[in-house]
Amino acid sequence: MDLVNPGLILSLIIVVIGILIIAKGLVVVRQSEVMVIERLGSFNRLLESGINIIIPFIEQPRAITMIRYRKLGEDYQAITSDEVRIDRRETVMDFPGQPVVTTDNVTVTINGALYYQIIDPKRAVYEVENMSQAVEVLAKTTLRSVVGKMELDKLFESRAEVNNEIQSSMEEAASKWGVKISRVEVQDIAMPEEVESAMRLQMAAERRRRATVTEAEGEKAAAIAMAQGQRESAILNAQGDKESAILRAQGEQESITLVLGAIGDSEENKRTVVGYLLGQSYIKALPTMAQQGERVFVPYESSALLGSMGMFREMAGTPEDAVASHLRSQSPREGLRSGMVGGAASGGD
Fold first, then answer.
1. What share of the chain in percent tops pLDDT 90?
2. Given phi > 0 = left and psi -120 to 50 = alpha, else beta, which region is 40?
3. What is the rounded distance in angstroms from the CA atom of residue 49 to the CA atom of residue 62?
4. What's the pLDDT tens digit per position in 295-317?
5. Average pLDDT over the chain, rounded to an integer
6. Model's pTM, two decimal places?
């Protein structure tokens, strides 16, 4: 049997070594990833996405240490890993709750989330020993510093302000590590049980106070509206009475003018018309006077007024002309006066 040719064996060994070298030196980098390559321990270049070739044993990728948290129930478990492929995408770090003391000496536990992105992989690898841990510690210390300047009530009202202040405080330090802080979010704020109970009581008292104030304001508005309505009603009634009185006076004036125009506007006729109007007023008042007592006393001057009414009716051609003429033929003033007084006396008896 022929021995194996040593040259063939050597050739096979060289081919196998070449294939291994090519396989070892051929690196495929996925999209949004990058690799930091060192040549003999010194930084050489960055491998971007796509197919790349490195020299095995001479060029090696430099790993970056990353810390991620996994939530197990109520606790968080830290997982540390060395990764040669650096992810350039935005990453969220949900770190465990941190005890923070506010200015009013209340200890609260704050759980936050940090969004960051590696912009410069070279700085992230060479400028800081553990980039993710450094960002986490920076976020925690900044959170304590910002919240420690605020009161508890202000903290609940100003979450957006706290987030923005933490982000702005971290940007300068993180930029030295090639990291961009996108945003910081305060998720949960846990308080001691006694503080939470006191806040519930305070909130209930505040709601009762607001309800009382609202009810009082409603009653005040209703009273004001009612008073304004009564005032406007009184003004309208007074205006109505005024206009009614003016219209009645104008009507009487026009009536007197028409009568005087018909019978003549001498002084005697004017006195007769005035006496007639006053007599009408007496006659209208007599029923009311009779209702207020058993006896009615008619003033002496009323007989003259009633006589003027009779004279007016005669001149105006009213249906009582015959009676008025008969009364005047028998001394109308004396007869009318004595008849009215006698009638009042007989009625009193």
1. 19
2. left
3. 16
4. 555 554 555 555 555 554 554 44
5. 77
6. 0.54
Range with the poorest average pLDDT among 57-66, 123-132, 277-286, 327-336 = 327-336
Q: Rounded CA gap, 68 and 94, in Å?
A: 8
- How many other CB atoms are there within 10 angstroms of residue 189's CB atom? 18
Q: How far is CA 94 from CA 98, 185, 188, 333, in A?
A: 12, 10, 11, 118
Per DSSP, which regions of the chain are E strands? 26-29, 33-39, 42-47, 50-53, 59-62, 64-72, 75-83, 86-87, 91-94, 98-101, 107-118, 179-190
Q: Which residues of 133-161 are buried (b: 16+ CB within 10 A; e: fewer)?
A: ebbbebbbebbeebbeebebeebeebeee
Please give the average per-residue pLDDT across 32-37, as a whole number: 94
CA distance 347 to 24: 145
Q: Other CB atoms closer than 10 Å to residue 228's CB: what's the count? A: 10
Secondary structure of residue 41 in the 3-state scheme: coil
| Closest to 276 in 3D by CA, of 248, 327, 313 | 313
Among 147, 161, 137, 135, which residue's Cα sits nearest to residue 189? Answer: 147
**Helix (H) or strand (E) run with residue 15 in it:** helix 6-25
* Torsion sign, CA atoms 119, 122, 127, 128: positive
